Amino acid sequence: MQAFFKRDFIIALTLFTVFLAYFSYYVYVDTGKKERYDALFSYLTMEKGYKKADIVKMEASHSIGAHFLSYDPWSISVIFQDEPKAIYYYHYQNGVVSQGGISGYTKNERYNHFENGPLDKRE
């Protein structure tokens, strides 16, 4: 009878540990997304002068696999109203927002929201 109780206790403890790890990760990702979203929105509207209507989509995402590859696990992407096929990527680290890259395309191959001035791929 005691061995039966011990086995049930080990199973219950294992399930509780898995649940706690999953819940902790979920809370970490949820709060991290909100923190990055708020910081980037503030950066774009307050520091860069964009209006809310200029931004079509803004999304923060987390990749647990990036931890194992020593990459930044967070990705923050923005799509602007006037360039719907271009995605601008930003980083948020130690309270500082910076632009990290661009993907996609524009009709005239000119990226107007590149932070070091407009980027023209034709030049």
Structural class: alpha+beta
Unreliable sequence segments: none
Mean pLDDT comes to 88
> What's the number of structural domains?
1
How much beta, percentage-wise?
25-35%
User: Main sheet, how many strands, which sense, barrel?
Assistant: 4 strands, antiparallel
The DSSP helix count reads: 2
Which bin fits the share of residues in helices? 40-55%
SSE order, one letter for each helix or strand: HEHEEEEE
Question: How would you characterize this protein structure?
Answer:
- The protein is of the alpha+beta class.
- The chain has one domain.
- The protein has 2 helices and 6 strands, in the order αβαβββββ.
- The strands form 2 sheets. The protein has a 4-stranded antiparallel β-sheet, covered by helices on one side.
- The longest helix is centred in the first third of the chain and has 46 residues.
- The N and C termini lie far apart (80 Å).
- The model has no long low-confidence stretch (mean pLDDT 88).
Task: Explain the layout of strands and helices.
Blueprint: H1 2-47, E1 55-62, H2 64-68, E2 74-80, E3 83-93, E4 96-104, E5 110-111, E6 119-120
Antiparallel strand pairs: 1-2, 2-3, 3-4, 5-6
